[in-house]
Amino acid sequence: MAMAWCRSDLMHRLTVRVQPNASADRVENWETDAAGRSYLKVRVRAVPEGGKANAAVEKLVAKWLGLPKSAVRVVTGAKNRLKGLDIDGPPELAAKLAGDQGNERAEN
């Protein structure tokens, strides 16, 4: 199984799959698609218009990770459900992501 996140010298990269128009904003769980790609499933109430859902994803993931909103940015997949997020966080963040990916459910 491929990891849904990676770390470079400057950033962490996290892959998420977004469900817009959801009943609540929440981080769901780690999943793997048929091609073996892992991602974090995220639901947001925002509509996928004018970048509203992307902004909601950035805000939700930042809150989930305990980071400021400005630390999370959608950098790939702006118009797709599968998105790449760049996260500006401490090296310890990799340990949190690795630990959470081993869990069935990622708590918000």
Q: Can you summarize this structure?
A:
The protein contains 2 helices and 6 strands.
Write the layout of secondary structure elements.
Elements: E1 5-7, E2 12-19, E3 26-32, E4 38-43, H1 52-65, E5 72-76, E6 82-87, H2 92-101
Parallel strand pairs: 2-4
Antiparallel strand pairs: 1-2, 2-6, 3-4, 5-6
CATH names the topology as Conserved Hypothetical Protein Mth637, Chain: A
Q: Structurally, how many domains make up the residues?
A: 1
Largest sheet: 6 strands, mixed
Unreliable segments of 5+ consecutive residues: 104-108
> CATH superfamily name?
YggU-like
Shape assignment: globular
Top-tier CATH class: Alpha Beta
Query: What is Rg?
Result: 13 Å
Mean pLDDT across all amino acids = 86
Q: Sketch the topology as an H/E string, one letter per element.
A: EEEEHEEH
Distance between the termini: 24 Å
Helix content: 10-25%
Structural class: alpha+beta
Strand content: 25-35%
Describe this structure in words.
With 108 residues, the chain is of the alpha+beta class. The chain has one domain: YggU-like (Conserved Hypothetical Protein Mth637, Chain: A, 2-Layer Sandwich). Helix content is 22%, strand content 32%. A hairpin with a 4-residue loop joins strand 1 and strand 2.
